[in-house]
Design goal:
With 299 residues, the protein is an alpha+beta fold. It has helices at 42-55, 103-112, 128-134, 176-179, 195-212, 232-238, 267-285; strands at 14-20, 32-38, 59-62, 68-70, 75-81, 88-91, 94-98, 115-116, 137-138, 141-142, 147-154, 159-163, 181-189, 191-192, 219-222, 245-246, 249-251, 258-261, 294-296.
Length: 299
C-alpha cells in the first residue's frame, strides 16, 4: 500500500505522485512510480534518501532508463531519476559530468575540446551514471578505459568517491551493481587529440550504428550480454527468431540483438519475448543468453 504522506521539505524539488514511468523509459513501457523525484543536486539526493529512510520507503535510483525494462505494475516507494543532474565541466584533459548527463553529450564535449577517448560513446544512448553502473562500451571502447573516478551515494545517504580500480570494472559490470548505491557524477581522464579526426571517428561509428541498429523504433538497446565465443545477435538470427512478436514487442528484423516496440508494447510483452528467445536459443545452440537489460519493478 502506498504511503500517501511522503512530503520531504526540499526546496525546488520536482516530486510527482503515481507517475507513469513509460514517460521516461526508452521502451515507452512501465507502470507508475508511487513517488517520482527529479533532483538537480547531490544535496537534494541526500535529503531525499534521508527522508525516504525515515518514512520506511523502498528506494530505486535510475538514470535515463535506456537499458531498462520497468514492470507494468510499476515501482513501489520512491523512484529517483537523475536526468536533471546533467552538468558537464571540462578542466584541461578531464571532464566531470553529472550522472544524468547523456553520454553522447559528454562525447561531444570531449570532441569540441579536442579530447580523445570517448569516440566509442558517440552513439550510446545511456547516461553517465548508467555507463559507470554497467561499464557501457562499444566499438572496442568501454567506460573502464576512461574513468578516473566516480562520486557515489549509498542508499543510506553516505557519499564517497571511488577511483577506477575501486570500481571493479568487468564486462558490463561495476562495483555499483553489488554496492546498492548510485553514481552522482564521474570524471573522465582523456588525452589531447585532433578535433576534426575525433569527429570523423565519431561520425564513422554513428554511421555504423545507424546502418545496423533499429534506431527508428523504441527499444531497450542491446538486450543480451555477449556469450563467450558467440554473438547474441547471430545466435538469435540462426534460431529463426527475427520478427518474433508478442503484443507490440518484436525481435528486430534489422538487428536480432534488439527487441523493439512496434506499437503498444507492454513490459510483459518484452519479458515474454526475452524468455522465448532464451529458451529457443538454448534449445537450438545450447547457449544460455544472459540479459544485459535490467528488469525492475513489482512483478
Amino acid at each position: 500500500m502506498m504511503n500517501n504522506n511522503f512530503n520531504p521539505k526540499i526546496n525546488n524539488l520536482i516530486l510527482k505522485q503515481n507517475e507513469l514511468l513509460s514517460h521516461y523509459t526508452f521502451t515507452k513501457t512501465g507502470g507508475p512510480a508511487d513517488y517520482l523525484a527529479l533532483p538537480t543536486t547531490a544535496e537534494q539526493v541526500g535529503a531525499l534518501l534521508s527522508a525516504a529512510h525515515a518514512d520506511g520507503l523502498p528506494i530505486t535510483i535510475l538514470g535515463n532508463s535506456s537499458n531498462l525494462i520497468v514492470s507494468d505494475k510499476g515501482i513501489r516507494g520512491l523512484t529517483i531519476i537523475l536526468t536533471q543532474m546533467d552538468q558537464i565541466q571540462v578542466h584541461g584533459t578531464q571532464i566531470t559530468a553529472g550522472a544524468g548527463a547523456a553520454l553522447i553529450d559528454v562525447a561531444i564535449a570531449a570532441q569540441t575540446h579536442g579530447l580523445s577517448g570517448l569516440e566509442y560513446a558517440a552513439g550510446i544512448p545511456g547516461s553517465v551514471g548508467g555507463a559507470v553502473y554497467m561499464n557501457a562500451g562499444a566499438y572496442g571502447g568501454q567506460t573502464a578505459d576512461v574513468i578516473k573516478d566516480a562520486q557515489v551515494v549509498s542508499l543510506d545517504g553516505t557519499m564517497r568517491t571511488y577511483d577506477n580500480a575501486q570500481l571493479d570494472f568487468g564486462y558490463r559490470h561495476s562495483l555499483i551493481q553489488s554496492d546498492s548505491g548510485a553514481v552522482l557524477s564521474a570524471t573522465f581522464a582523456l588525452t589531447p587529440g585532433n578535433a576534426n579526426q575525433i569527429l570523423a571517428q565519431m561520425d564513422h561509428f554513428n554511421a555504423q550504428r545507424a546502418s545496423k541498429q533499429p534506431l527508428e523504433l523504441p527499444s531497450c538497446g542491446s538486450v543480451f550480454k555477449r556469450p563467450v565465443g558467440h554473438f547474441a545477435g547471430k545466435l538469435i538470427h540462426d534460431a529463426g527468431l527475427q520478427g518474433y512478436r508478442v503484443g507490440g514487442a518484436e525481435v528486430s528484423t534489422k538487428h536480432a540483438g534488439f527487441i523493439v516496440n512496434v506499437g503498444g508494447a507492454t513490459a510483459d510483452d518484452y519479458i515474454n519475448v526475452i524468455h522465448h528467445v532464451q529458451a529457443t536459443v538454448l534449445k537450438h545452440s545450447g547457449v544460455h543468453l544472459e540479459t544485459e537489460v535490467r528488469i525492475i519493478g513489482e512483478q
